[in-house]
Amino acid sequence: MTVSSEPAPAASARSGLLAGDARFAVLCALGIAAFPFLIHPIGGYSTLATQIAIVSIASIGFNLLLGYAGSLSYGHAMFYGGGGYLAAILLLRVSPQHPNLWLCVLGATAGTAILAMIVGAVTVRLYGIYFALLTLAFAQMVYFIVEQAKDWTNGDDGLQALPNALLPIGPWTVDLTTHLPSFNLGPFGDVGELRLWYIFAGICLVLVLLFARMLTRSQFGEVLGAIRENEQRSTLIGFNAPAYRLAAFAISGALTGFSGALRAMFDGSVSVDALSIDRSGSFVIYTIVGGVQTLFGPVAGTAVIMFLENVLSARTPAWRLIEGLVFVGVIVFLPRGLSTVLKQQRDKNPRGLFVRSLRPSNEEPDALLRPGGEGRKSGPISIIETFKLGKLFGHFAANHDIDFKVDPGELRAVIGPNGAGKTTFFNLLSGTSAPSSGTINYKGRDVSRLSGTSRVHLGIAKAFQTASLYPDQTVRQNCRLAALARVQGRFALQVFRRSIRLDDVDNLAERAMARLELLDVADVRAGDLSHGDKKRLDIAIALATQPQILLLDEPIAGMSKDEARKTEALIRKLATEMTVLVIEHDMEMVMGISDSITVLHQGTVLATGTPAEIQANPRVQEAYLGGHSEAELAH
Amino acid sequence: MKQSLSRGRFVAGTAGAVALTFGGGRYVIAAPTKEIVIGLNVPQSGPYAEQGTDQLRAYHLAIDEINAKGGIMGMKIKASEGDDQTTAGVATANAQRMIERDGALMITGGSSTGTAVAVSGLCQQKGVIFMATLTHGDETTNQNCHKHTFRRYNDAYMSAQSLAKTLVSKYGTGKWFHITADYAWGHSVYDNITAVVEPKGAKTIKNVLTPFPGTKDFSPMLQQAQAAKPDVLVITEFGADMVTCLNQAAQFGLTKSTKILVPLVDEYMAKGTKDNFDNVVSTAPFYWKYHAAKYPGAKKFVDAFQAKYGFPPSNGAETAYADIYIYKMAVEKAGSTDAAKVIGVLEGTKFQFTKEQEWYRKEDHQGVNSCLVVEGIPESQRGPGGFEYAKVLEVHDGPSVVAPLAGLVCKMETA
Amino acid sequence: MEALFQAMIGGLVLGLIYVAIAVGLTIIFGTLRLVNFAHGAFYAIGAYVGLVIAQHIGVGWAFIAAPIAVALFAVLLDRLVLRSFYDKEPTAQLLVTFGIALVVEESLRLIFGATTQQYTMPAALQGSVTLGPITYPAYRLLFAGGVIVMLALVWLFIERTNYGLIVRAGIRDRTMVQLLGGNIRQASTIVFALGAAIAGLVGAAATPIYSIDPGTGFAFLVPSFVVVVVGGLGSFWGAVLGGLLIGELQSLTNLAYAPASNVVIYLCMALILLLRPQGLLGESEVIRQ
Questions:
Q1: B124 contacts in A (CB within 8 Å)?
Q2: Does residue C229 belong to any structural domain of this protein?
Q3: Paired strand residues for A604
Q4: pTM (two decimals)
Q5: Do A310 and A399 have their domain in common?
Q6: What domain range includes position A151?
Q7: Fewer beta carbons within 10 Å, N or C terminal of chain B?
C-alpha cells in the first residue's frame, strides 16, 4: 500500500472521497455483473461464477494480511473451512425447519472472528516462516478436531445435502436458488442460467471490496502499512504493533470465514478439504498471481486460477503444473512488487527476522504506572532516575549497577569507550530492552516493566544510532506518522476513515520538520535522503511525538563537519525545551553543548559531572585512553 | 503501477491463451442436443488411481461400442470426465460441473464410499441419476441411500457374509486381528465381519485404525499385529494402500505366519502385491477368468477389453462397463431420459449382461448379484501380466448374502 | 511391551528420515539464508530416480545415481532461479520454493503417474532380524544404520573440513566470512548440493519402506520443517534431536491413538514456538544493538 503522496485531504475533500468510493463500488458492480456472461463463451458457467465471487472474498481477506500487514499465513483454511462448518452446523442444528441464511452466515462469521482472535493472540508474536508454520500448525489442529468430532461434523464424510437456507428481507423471504428470468444473450449465455445467489454473492463481494478499500486508506490501514514497513520504528513512536497485527489477523480471518460460510450455503455441503493444507495454499496462489499490492488483484487471481482449474482439469492432467509454473513465473519475474510489500523489519540479526517478541519477556504489557519501585524515593526534580540498573546477556553484563539521574531540561551527554554499554543503556531507558535488575523511574514513577510503546506516550522518545525510517514515504509522511501516533494513541480501530484531527497531526509534523530544518526536503522520499538528512529525520520523527525527554544515539555520527555543527546547534535549541540525553563520541560537541556528562565504562557509571570536571578526571582519561595526554582527550 | 500492468498482462495473456486453447467453444451450453452426456467421475490420482483409470477404460469401451451401434435411442453418448482425487469436495465439484456446464444426465464413477456419498447427495438435489460404481461401504445404499442412486457392486455386508460362510468353519474360533482404514468404508467392513464371525466364536483381539488417506507406513500397526500372534489378520485397506500394507506385512513375516484376509480385492492390487498375495483370501464381485468361462456376456466383454487394451479388465472395470449398458437398457425401456421414468425401470427390471441375471432392490437400490470368495495363487502361476491372480473358493449368489431388508435404515425419497 | 519396543524402533527409522531431510534444510538455511520449501522435491526426485534405476539396472546403482541426480538438479535450480532470492525476505523465499515444489510434484505426476510405486530390495536384504523379543525387517535396520553413517559423514564434513568451517562461520556471521575472504559462494553451492543430495539419497533408500508417489515429497517436507523449528534453525544437532523426537512422538502416538499421530507433531511445534521459539538447541536471540 502506498500512501498517496499528496498532502492529506482537507475536510471538504471528504465528500470527494465518498464520491470516489461510490464510483469504485459502481465499477466493481458492473464488472461483477458482466463476469458470468463474459466467461460463458470460453467454458464458464453460472455455478462457477458464483463460486469465484464467493472465494474472492476469502482472497481479499487473505490479502489484507499478506499484502497490507505483511504476514504470510499458511493456515487460512482453518477460517474458510471453519466458517463453512459453523454455517452448516448452525443450519442443521438451529431450527432446520426454518433455515435462516443471515443467522448461519453471520453466526459463522462471528465464530470465525473469535477463532481468529484466539489464534492471532498467540501467533502474531512471531514473524516470517515461524508465523507461517504456526498458522499451519493451528490449521492442522482444527482439521483434526473437525475430523474427530464426528457427531457434529460427520468426520471425513463431511456434511452433505444441507437444506436450503432462505433469506428473509423485510416482508419477503427470498430463496436464493431461484433462477433469474430468461433472457438470451447469444454466445454469452442466458441470464436465466444465473440464480439469485449470484446477485447476493456479488453484492457481498462489492461490499467487501468497498470495505477493503476504505480500510486500506483509513487511519488504521495507514498505521498497518507503517508497521509493515518498519516495525521497530513504529513501536518506538508509540504504535502498539502487536495489537495492529492482531486486529489485521482477526479481520482477515473473519472475512475468510464469511466466504467459507457463503460457500457452504451455496454448495449445500462442506467437507474436510475446505480445511486442508491445499486449501490454505490455494489462497496464497490466488493472491500472489493476482497481485498482492492491489485491491482487485486477489479477485482477479481467484477468477483466473479457479477458472483455469475448472476448464483445464477436464482437458489435461497437466493443469496443476501450468498453475505452478504461472505462480513461480509471477514471483520470479515481478519481484519488486513482492519485496516492497513483503518487506519485514530489516535487522542485523538474522534470527530477528524470524522471531521477535518486541516486548521483553518479563514485561507486563499494559501495566499501569506504578508508584516508585524499590530503592530510594526519588525527589520531585529528576525526570529520569535509575537504581542499580543492569542488563545481562547470557553471562555478559552489558550494564550493571547503574545509578543515574538527570534533571528536567538538562542536556546530558553519555560518553564512554566502545563497549561501555551506552546503547544498551539507552535501550533500557527507551524500553527496547527489559532490565535484568534494578529500576527506572520516570517522573517519580517506576516504568521498568513498561513497554517502549507506552513509554513513548509518556514522553520518552528515542532517535536511533542507525536512522530507522520509513524509506518509501516522504519526510513529511514520516513525521506525520509519528505525530499520528501521538494524537491517536497506541491503537485505534479507525477502519473506515482517514486520520482524525488531521490539523493536529499536520501541525505536529510541520513543527518537527521545521525544528530540524527539513522543510526543503519535506516531499523527498526518505530512502533517497543524504545520510545527514536521514539522521536529522530520525530526530524529527522522535520529536513529532512531543516528548519530554529525547534520547539521541550518536546523532551526528557520519555527518560532515558543517552538517554536524548545524545539527549540534539544532539539538542545543531543542534542549531548551526538553531534556535531552545524547550518546556521542565527538568530544568537541560533547564538551561544547552539554550541561553535564555521564561517563560509562565497562557497563557502569564511572563519573558524572560538568564538562570541566570530566575532562580533569584522571580515571576518565585512563578509561578512554589508557593515560594519554589531556590535549589528545580534548579532541 | 508498471509492475501491476506487466503482471496483469502476463497473467491475463497466459490465462486467455490457455483458456482458448482448451476451452474454446466446446462447452457452450447449447440448446437441445442430440447427445446424452454422461459424467465419468473417477479418481485419477491418490491411492485408488489405478482402479479409477481402469474404470475409465471400461467406460470408453462401452461408450464406443454403443455409439458405433447408433447410441441410445439414436442419441450418441458423450462423456464428460473428471478426476475426483478421492476427495468429496472435488468429486462434488466435478459432478456439479458435469451437470451444469455439460448437461450430464447421468453421473457414474467413484472408488471410495466417501466420495460416493457426497456425489449421491448432490445428484439427488439435481435430479440426476447416479450409478455408483466402485463403492463398497454399506452406507451408499443404506444410511445415505437416495432415490437417484443405484449401486450394483457388492457391499461390505455381502462380502463379509461371503467370507464368513466360506471360512468360518476353519477359522471361526480363532483369534482375529484387524487393521482398518479409518473412514466410512473401513468401519463398515469391520462392523460387518465382526458381526458375522464373533457370534461363531471368533475372538477379536484388536482393531487398529489407519488414518485415511495418507498412511504410508503401516509398520506400527503391523508390529502390533505381529506381537499379537493372531490366527487371522484382516487388512481392510484398498487400492494402493492395500498394496503398501500387504507388502510391508510381508517384511514382518506376517504373510507366512498368519492367514490374511483382505475383504475386497481387484487385479491391480493383486499385481502390486505379487507373491505376497499368495494364499490371501478375499472377495470380488467379478473375476474375468471365472466369469468369461461361464457367461457369454462376460466373455464378450473380456475379449473386447483385451483386444482394445491388451490386458484383461479388473472387477471395477466390469461394473463400469455394465453400468453404462444398464443405463442404456433402462432409458430404452423407459422410452425417455427422464430420471423418474428411468428410476422406475431400474427398480423393477431384471437384466443380464456380464454375470448371472441380476436386479436392483426397490427399497435401497442395492444390486443383487453374486459375490466370489477367492484365494491368491503364487505369482509363478499367474499367467502373462499377472492378471490371473486367484482361484475361486466359492461363489455366493446375491440373494443369499445381501443385507436383509429388516435391518435397513434406508429411507428413500419418493422422487 | 513388545509393541512399545517395536514402536520405538519404528520411530527411530521414521525419525532418521526426518533428521536427514532436516539436516539438509538447516545447513542450507545456515549458509544460504534460504528457506527452502522445495526440499521435499529433492526427496521425491531422488526416490523416483532410485526407483527407475533400481527397476532397470540395479538397486546398488540407484543409491549412487539418486544423490548425484538430485545434486545436479539442485545446482541447476540454484543457478537459474534461487540465486536471486538469497537476499530476499524469507517470505518471498518461502513462496518461490513453494511454487517450485508444486511444479516438481506435478511434473513427477505427469512423468511417473499418480500411483504409488515401490521397488523391492534384493532377496538378501528381505527378511527379518530377531532382536530379543521382537522380529524386525532387516532392511529397515540397515536403512537406519546407513542414515546414521551418512549423518556422521556430514557432521565430519561440517566440523573437520574447510568448507565446513566456512559453513559454521557463515551460520554465525555471513558478512564477516565474506569480508575475511572465505569463499562463501563456492562453499554455499557445495552445501546446497550436499543438503539436496542427502535428501535424494534418503528418498531413494526409503522407497522400499514407504513407497513413493508424487505427493510423498511434500508429505515428508512439512514434518521436516517442524523438526527444524523444534530443533532450532541452523543447528545440526538440533535437527538430529528434533528429528528423533518427532519420529518417536509420531510412532508412539500411532500406537496409542492413531488418528492423532498427524496432529501431535503440530502441537509439539506450536508449543516450542510459543515457549522457546529458537528451538531446543537453537541459539537464544542475539543482542540487538
A1: 161
A2: yes
A3: A601
A4: 0.84
A5: no
A6: 21-345
A7: N
